[in-house]
Amino acid sequence: MAARPVSDRWRVTSRRPVDLSARDASAKTGAPGDKDATKAHTATLRARLAELQAKLYAEGSRSLLVVLQAMDAGGKDGTIRAVFEGVNPQGVKVVSFKAPTPEELAHDFLWRVHAQVPSDGDITVFNRSHYEDVLVVRVHDLVPEAVWRGRYARIRAFEELLHAEGTTIVKIMLHISAEEQKERLQERIDNPEKRWKFNPADLSERHHWDAYQEAYGEALGQTTARHAPWYVVPADRNWYRNWAVLQILVDTLEQMNPQFPPAAEGAEDAVVV
């Protein structure tokens, strides 16, 4: 029997709501050693990711969508920088979804998202995503409950469509604790080099912590699927977070098993003159 992927430890497998309060955001479970050993293994995984991404890009027939979600200061930007260091930038795109524009609001909630899904051969990373439409809108009562609850089914159908068309989907929630968020937000205020990141709205959003945890918990259960799984990664420790996310992506790409296409006939005998 084949060994289970390391990343299965973070995978959401039940359709029941996830109790995030029961998950230790500072956990180090499964790490290949202490901080230094884990960082060394992270470098190995990063090199492996680059190899697999090069094959996916060359193969040009399938794609990978990585959805990153987190509370404010959850580490999405840092994760993207750390994980995709060294990959071919031609084959990786990062899309950050901000508050919708008037034009976007005039369309269905998936309209702006569908336009950004990866092309064949590419990896696209969503920094926030269509899940804001069952998180922020729920917490702030922006639409009736019947509307945001109905979106779970529409999200599942959307992701089923992408999967059927050759896009593998990986969804990762970077799970931080309220205490860690407090420290990170305060650091943004205190450190002049990070103050540009500070948004006063982050403080008001923090007052809705429990509501967001409940909204995330239900969304994770409602929309995890074999073809579009959710992973909850403990993210209080950046070094563990980076290793875990890389492990998830490498496991996923190894299961996809992309291959370099065959060379053109006669290529091996060609001579450049």
Automatic annotation (TrEMBL):
Domain Polyphosphate kinase-2-related: 34-260
GO-annotated molecular function: kinase activity
Pfam families reported in the protein's UniProt record: PPK2 (PF03976)
Gene3D superfamilies named among the record's database cross-references: P-loop containing nucleotide triphosphate hydrolases (3.40.50.300)
Keywords (A to Z) from UniProt: Kinase, Transferase
InterPro entries, alphabetized: P-loop_NTPase (IPR027417), Polyphosphate_phosphotransfera (IPR016898), PPK2-rel_1 (IPR022300), PPK2-related (IPR022488)
Keyword check for Hydrolase: no
PANTHER family: POLYPHOSPHATE:AMP PHOSPHOTRANSFERASE, POLYPHOSPHATE:AMP PHOSPHOTRANSFERASE-RELATED
NCBIfam families, per the entry: PPK2_rel_1
Protein name according to UniProt: Polyphosphate kinase 2 family protein
Organism: Paraconexibacter antarcticus
